[in-house]
Amino acid sequence: MPNGYNGKILHVDLTKGKLEIEEPKESFYRKYLGGSAMGMYYILREMPKGADPLGPDNVLTLMAGVATGAPISGQSRLNANAKSPISGGIGDSQSGGFFPAELKFAGFDGIVVKGKSPKPVYLAIVDGKPELRDAAHLMGKLTGEVDDILHKEVDPKAEILQHGPAADKGVLYSTLVSMSTRHNGRTGMGLVMASKNLKAVVVRGTKRVEMADSKAVAALNKIGPKAIPENGDMDGLAKHGTAVVVLFNNTIGTLPTRNYNEGQFEGCEPISGEKMSETILKERDTCYACVVKCKRVVEIKDGPYKVDPKYGGPEYETLGTFGSYCGVDDLAAVSLANQICNEYAVDTIACGATIAFAMECFEKGIITTKETGGLELKFGNAEAMLAALNQIVRGEGALGSILGQGSERAAKIWGKGADECIITVKGAESPAHMPQAKRSLALIYAVNPFGADHQSSEHDPYYEDGVGDFNLNRLKQIGLGAPQPAYSLTEEKVRFAYETEVFYSMLDSAELCQFVYGPTWTLYDGEQTAEMLRAVTGWDITLDDLMAVGRRRLNLFRTFNAREGLGRKDDKLPKKFFKPLVGTGPTTGFALTHEEVDSAIDAYYKLAGFTANGAPTRAGLKNLDIEWAADYLPA
Ligand code: SF4
């Protein structure tokens, strides 16, 4: 019996209705650890070049990690990968909750899905036995309703990962969601699963994860409750959720406001994590075995915007995109927007940012009430924001169907300079951390294989002068020890961006939560991450070994993108980021320059060992012991 993992990958061919179980060797798990690195092993081999993202040839992988389900914080994560219908490059997205651990308890480490079922089905895996079942009765239902039906039908304790009704309406940024609250949110993975006529994956099992050294795991786990109150970042996260950074980002001028034109929002207090805790917070929620409990559950019983606690509560990104991006300072309205996104399963970042984009187009006269169907889609109009959202998720009217394709495609349809209002990279709307101020994020937003992402590297304040010994000592573990001035994009800052990107890339392979394991402020540092994985698996692995896994994942992503025709031309930031920020605050007037971004991209490619077009080389892949992937590089 292997430690940590089950040694079983389930292959599902929906066209043939065939289910097969593969038992990979231990060396396979050790090389990839799980998550997206493991998913890419199958995607590159099994998906033909040029596959239609919404056709049967796309391959969707759902992978846990070698420690998923172990009794320690921050391990219950699941990665979804496939060709993204948004970018045509690789899609990648992680979620937490209880589904990932339950998948392990049900007997599998991951699932590879290909083909297309002739009719809607769901995959049930109960105690090691997979089965495809009819899903006709689930179609068109809200995510919470589907959860209720499948809990009765399969097992009250089953965990359910599903696409929602928005995907059936073709919303491009549809998600996969479990617990009706935990999303594989970005890059359109919900639409991919819907295109395969696979409605849901339901897992239930009684197996438990075997560990090489359960005493060492228990000892590490005990650190959590003591360390959290002593660590300001962790304490804030535990008390107020990710929403704790609303006020911090506003203070440093990186709370995107009115579609990313300003870095401070005068209405930030009413939508802050502190205000949520004081007013509508019903309870804190968690992922399997995690002591941090950063998830929010809110409830609003009265007033115009009632909110059902069944659908959780807003994260920072949601408060940003539906709040400050849209100029809306009404916490109840933003919480209801969060609920609607959870009921229909759409990405709150893409959706809120797309509505903010439409608001700017409306304010500039690029669109009028003719295009909005009568909506006064102005910044600050919460009613109009919610009306637009309802049209998007239901696929109603011209406005709903256009905005359901995201801001980049909407800008092409509307023309008249609408492209000046987009904030997308590879089609993905930018998250609520502004690269004009956090300049290393400008680089990562540009080069990240699946578009602008705030969870793919560490943020600048942790590598700026005066960062403090706690964070600096941790960064030294991965060879970073020379903090840089604020707002700089020096070569050393590029190195910081790349090495922390590699660390985060490893976390998204081992499937570890980035709020628990990380290179700076988190509960466990890099060396402790390696210690935990050693204790679970029994392998003699070092932090360097783990970093190699992170490099493998990035190289596999880049190999896939190169094969699909993506390269340097796609590592491109939106025009808006090069225009000075307006409004008031410490970042007013800030803009990126093309020179600094271009030279940072050059330096990044060199550090990573990529070609001038951003592709891996055969030699680089060989060094990482994944030479097989070179067969998929373009000639
Ligand atoms: S820190 Fe938050 S997101 Fe991460 S595992 Fe714990 S509860 Fe889940």
In words, what does this structure look like?
- The structure is a single chain.
- The two termini are 42 Å apart.
- The protein is globular, with a radius of gyration of 23 Å.
- Strand 4 and strand 5 form a beta hairpin.
- Strands 2-1-6-3-4-5 form a 6-stranded mixed β-sheet, sandwiched between helices. Strands 8-7-12-9-10-11 form a 6-stranded mixed β-sheet. The chain has a two-stranded antiparallel ribbon with strand order 13-14.
- The protein is an alpha+beta fold.
- It contains 24 helices and 16 strands.
- Helix 15 (382-394) crosses helix 16 (397-403).
- The mean pLDDT is 97.
- It folds into 3 domains: 9-204, Aldehyde ferredoxin oxidoreductase, N-terminal domain (Aldehyde Ferredoxin Oxidoreductase,  A, domain 1, 4-Layer Sandwich); 215-421, Aldehyde Ferredoxin Oxidoreductase Protein, subunit A, domain 2, CATH 1.10.569; 439-632, Aldehyde Ferredoxin Oxidoreductase Protein, subunit A, domain 3.
- Bound molecules: iron/sulfur cluster (SF4).
- The site of iron/sulfur cluster has 13 residues, from loops.
Cα-atom radius of gyration: 23 Å
Q: List low-confidence stretches.
A: none
CATH class of the largest domain: Mainly Alpha
The CATH architecture name of the largest domain reads Orthogonal Bundle
CATH topology of the largest domain: Aldehyde Ferredoxin Oxidoreductase Protein, subunit A, domain 2
Number of domains: 3
Instruction: Count all strands and give the number.
Output: 16
Nutshell version of this structure?
The chain is of the alpha+beta class and 635 residues long.
